[in-house]
Design brief:
11% strand, 52% helix, mainly alpha, 2 strands
């Protein structure tokens, strides 16, 4: 799985960056595995790179997002007290 790793303002050596990247990759992989068990996503190996994977949302995952979106948008509006957030 490919994921974006942000740049850090504090300089660190290669070993430290590698450690941070590995921890993040492990967390993402663990989270995807939990979502896969709930049938929210499916995972397929990447034929070009055996270390990577393609993660796709399932119908169950899409339905879950559609059910959660209105309440999420309401909560974001309350927190930010903004009418600039588009209506869903």
């Amino acid at each position: 799985m490919m994921c974006h790793l942000p740049c850090y303002a504090v300089p660190c050596g290669c070993d430290e960056r590698h450690s941070v990247a590995e921890r993040r990759r492990s967390r993402v992989s663990h989270h995807v595995a939990r979502m896969e068990k709930r049938d929210l996503v499916s995972r397929q190996g990447c034929p070009e790179d055996g270390r990577g994977a393609f993660v796709r949302i399932t119908e169950t995952g899409r339905a879950t997002i559609e059910r959660a979106a209105p309440a999420h948008v309401r909560a974001v509006r309350q927190v930010h007290n903004s009418s600039e957030i588009p209506r869903v």
